[in-house]
Write a structure and sequence with these properties.
By secondary structure, this protein is mainly alpha-helical. Helices cover about 85% and strands about 0% of the residues.
């Protein structure tokens, strides 16, 4: 969520997860992409609730 809130793209975040997270590497690119997608959705919800 931090990377997304700092303006990083979903794809860049998923790529970074694959590099940094052993859990992401174990579970594969699809899991990293889903995690980044979910983080982006959570950030969007948080931003909407602050408006």
């Amino acid at each position: 969520m931090t990377a997304i809130s700092w303006g990083h793209t979903i794809d860049a975040t998923a790529t970074q997860l694959m590099e940094e997270s052993s859990e992401a590497r174990e579970n594969g690119e699809r899991c990293a992409q889903m995690t980044a997608d979910n983080a982006a959705a959570a950030v969007a919800r948080r931003e909407r609730s602050r408006a």
